[in-house]
Amino acid sequence: MEKVKKEIYTIDATGKVLGRLATEIVAILRGKNKPDFMPNKDSNNVVVIKNIKKIVVTGNKMEGKTYFRHTGYLGGEKNIPMKVIFEKNPGEILIKAISGMLPKNRLRDQQLKRIKFE
What is the pTM of this model? Predict the structure, then answer.
């Protein structure tokens, strides 16, 4: 099997909308921007994102959107607003958006590890 060459893409997130930026990153991670794209082949592309704090979220999502998780215990529901997560770590929101757009298969975790923040 042939080795796939690793390419590094740098994206400036200043003024970009969250979802549109996420779709752009997903296409690069999957290798859809190359002519030899195959859904079962990993592209080994690395995405470096700069100025993640300057990302734009449209509408009223900062106050209205919540992320759900469960501790595993009875009554252990946690609903965390987007605003709280964004203040702590804005990259986590982008990771969650990208994770939801990637196909749910064995390549997903490898592709998510190749997202870097500056």
Answer: 0.90
